[in-house]
Amino acid sequence: MKEALYNTLRQIALLFEAVTVRRLLFNRFVLVIVLTLALTGAVQGYAAMNSDGTIQGQVVNENGEPIAGAEVSIQQLGIRNQYEGNSTTTDENGRFEFTGQENLLEFRIRVTTEDAATVERHHLYFRGQNREINFVLQTEE
Fold this sequence. Notes:
The chain is an alpha/beta fold. The protein contains 3 helices and 8 strands. About 10% of the residues are buried.
């Protein structure tokens, strides 16, 4: 009985010796899994560093000149509901920015000026991502 147990343990030990670390590292399946995990971790790290929920952009006219004082409003959309939104005005360079929008998933953004047509866009948004949205407004004649 002792000899049978000894032989079984010896066979298990030989089996583990055959699977060396070097052999395991060069196994293509293990290599694919390790590379996939490393890539996933890198993407998650990049997303975490660059995702503070900022939506920004610029409003210009058809000649590329910035439009100061344009009203930019953002409104969260739901399946059945439209939620109260935020609004801001563009600065002298036509730039606008909404910060702290980590919880948005789907939204509508609207730009309105006194002498140009209103432009509205619908966007899907990945929570917490930073987004650049630019508008070119055509002046009404």
